[in-house]
Design a protein that fits this description.
The chain is α/β, with parallel strands linked by helices and about 280 residues long. It has a six-stranded parallel sheet with strand order 3-4-2-1-5-6, with helices on both faces.
Length: about 280
């Protein structure tokens, strides 16, 4: 590996320093628009462009999993007109972006509650997953109608039901058992958790999975997020020491041992010093 790439990693080796799974709270669309005298819908539209840039950048860096917080279970409290526009952006994304991502080899997965969604929205989500199911590149996980507490509660209900009918004992409810009943149990926990707009909270996003994630808070609004911002966050991650509650520091990029996904077979392509 060249000296330029080593410097971008803060002197650490590229394969170890690269996070396997990056999760992002895409915050600040409305404030970005307000600062420019534009309607909130303009901020959401610009935010979609940031999603496209970030997916390309994550794929080029060799990140295996990218999870984005698209629509939370709490977002239903927003004005109906704004919700309608967000759903129209989802439809546009499926009809115009998914095919391009499919060509890139991106696999798309959706996490969140589908009960209560309009049937055409459910079909769109299913179509995304079905079209890209066999792709082996970046896995893009879209959290849609998602809430972290709701996900944990749903897992708890499944386990309680299993205990009630005698399929398992209460003492068999372990962290591993809970993990097995989350929306995507085969996906490794996020290594790097990014939130834009300088807000410093998790907002009900991946509450269980983010237990040992490295948190990076970015001051800029989401529509301004780009490849350079992603690289900067990864560089910050590479400088961290990960102990997972112990005394011995693990290299940045070491996945939390309690939860592992099956190997994807994907070749890591570190390009931290690449183009913005």
């Amino acid at each position: 590996m060249g000296q330029e790439a080593e410097n971008a990693h803060g002197g650490q080796g590229a394969p170890d320093a690269l996070p396997r799974h990056v999760a992002i709270i895409m915050d600040g669309n409305g404030r970005w628009a307000k600062a420019r005298g534009l309607p909130r819908t303009a901020g959401h539209k610009a935010g979609m462009e940031a999603v496209r840039r970030t997916v390309r950048a994550a794929d080029e860096l060799g990140i295996e999993f990218l999870t984005i917080y698209s629509f939370s279970s709490e977002n239903w409290s927003r004005p109906k007109a704004e919700i309608s526009y967000l759903f129209s952006l989802l439809r546009h994304f499926v009809h115009h972006d998914v095919a391009r991502m499919h060509q890139m080899g991106v696999r798309i997965r959706i996490i969140g509650e589908r009960k209560g969604l309009e049937p055409d929205i459910v079909r769109l989500l299913e179509d995304c997953e079905e079209l890209t199911r066999d792709n082996s590149g970046l896995t893009l996980i879209v959290a849609f109608n998602y809430g972290g507490r709701q996900e944990i509660a749903a897992a708890a209900r499944k386990l309680a039901a299993a205990v009630a009918v005698g399929r398992m004992k209460p003492e068999e409810i372990t962290p591993e058992a809970i993990c097995a009943h989350l929306y995507a149990p085969d996906v490794p926990d996020p290594d790097l958790f990014i939130r834009t707009s300088d807000e410093k909270r998790l907002s009900n996003f991946l509450l269980w999975q983010a237990a040992y994630a490295e948190l990076v808070f970015v001051p800029g609004f989401w529509p301004d997020f780009d490849a350079a911002a992603l690289r900067a966050a990864v560089q910050e991650y590479a400088r961290r020491e990960r102990r997972f509650g112990g005394l011995k520091a693990e290299p940045a990029g070491q996945a939390e041992p309690a939860r592992q996904a099956e190997p994807s077979g994907r070749t890591t392509r570190s390009k931290l010093a690449g183009r913005a």
